[in-house]
Design goal:
5 strands, globular, five-stranded parallel β-sheet, Rossmann fold, alpha/beta
């Protein structure tokens, strides 16, 4: 069984695209529709090996979710990759300061995403 990746995005289509790309590469995936669901999924499931998250979402955005997840010391090493249409350097800096390890701008290249996930979960 592959490593478990949490996909957090308010777009079901994006979750499906990411899930298909990762599934074909042998990863297991779980999904959340916003940052609050994402933070809750991480809290409930210690087997999550990595989080891929959008930035702009209702209820709790991706940056707030990263901060929330990283508050727990046991999640310090959990890689969180931002996958978003946003590309502003200030937002990227904010995400890195919150604890995100990388940033991919949508539309994403599936093989690049899979390669990044493999590297971050190795």
């Amino acid at each position: 069984m592959g490593k478990l990746i949490l996909i957090v995005d308010d777009s079901a289509a994006v979750r499906q695209q990411v899930g298909m790309a990762l599934g074909q590469a042998g990863f297991e995936t779980v999904e959340a529709g916003d940052g609050r669901e994402g933070a809750s999924a991480v809290a409930k499931n210690p087997n999550i090996a990595m989080v891929i998250s959008d930035v702009n979402m209702p209820n709790m955005n991706g940056l707030e979710m990263v901060s929330e997840i990283k508050k727990n010391p046991s999640n310090r090493a959990l890689p969180i990759l931002m996958l978003t249409t946003e590309g502003q350097p200030a937002l990227i800096k904010q995400a890195k300061e919150a604890g995100a390890v990388g940033w991919i701008v949508k539309p994403f290249n599936a093989s690049q995403l899979v390669a990044t996930v493999k590297k971050l979960t190795a």
